[in-house]
Amino acid sequence: MNSFFGRRLQLYFGLASLLLANSSAFAANQKFGLGIVLGEPSGLTGKVWSDHRAAIDFGLAFAFDDYILMYADYLHHFPGAFGSSSPFVAQLNPYLGIGAIVAFDTNNNFNANRRFFSSGSGSVGLGARIPLGIEWRPSHPTIGVFVELVPGLAILPATDGLVEGGVGVRYYF
């Protein structure tokens, strides 16, 4: 693991620790969350709930293929989809969504296997994504722990399929 990637992980774990430090002081029905996601891509994530079924999530992340991306998704949740056989199961919210990606190339190496940037560095890429996931959101602490798989399509400057995904945590304010 190179030191640059190691510093990024330390930053993300430090942010998560800070966000979770005083979580019991807030009510569980808070609608705005900030946190981290680790995977492909890894970075900062946020979520704004409009009601108990609909939310917008967004993020600023880096991909291991050496590009930075911003994304935003509309998510539709299915609360109670697994029943209420236990308190834990009742707090699981599967979701499905649709969103967009804007990616910025940060790699000077020419690599034909890269999703967005087969034509060199300095490019901006656009794409679409379909997040599929599940979030556990307990009453206390006011966090959301999620795992998601995100198939998608890089559209510009090159068209190619992509699969993203990760595990993350958000603290709700």
What does this structure look like?
By secondary structure, the chain is mainly beta. It has one domain (3-172): Beta Barrel (Porin), CATH 2.40.160.20. The chain is 13% helix and 52% strand. The protein is built from two helices and nine strands. The chain has helices at residues 3-20, 87-90, and strands spanning 32-40, 42-49, 54-63, 67-77, 92-105, 124-129, 132-136, 143-156, 160-172. A hairpin with a 1-residue loop joins β1 and β2. The radius of gyration is 17 Å and the shape is elongated. It starts with a helix and ends with a strand. Mean pLDDT is 81; it is low at 15-28.
The fraction of residues in strands falls at over 45%
Order of helices and strands: HEEEEHEEEEE
| Major beta-sheet overview | 9 strands, antiparallel
Principal-axis shape equals: elongated
Tally of domains: 1
Specify the CATH class. Answer: Mainly Beta
Terminal Cα span: 34 Å
Structural class: mainly beta
* Rg value: 17 Å
Query: What's the CATH topology name?
Result: Porin
Give the number of helices.
Answer: 2
> Architecture in CATH?
Beta Barrel
* Relative helix content: 10-25%
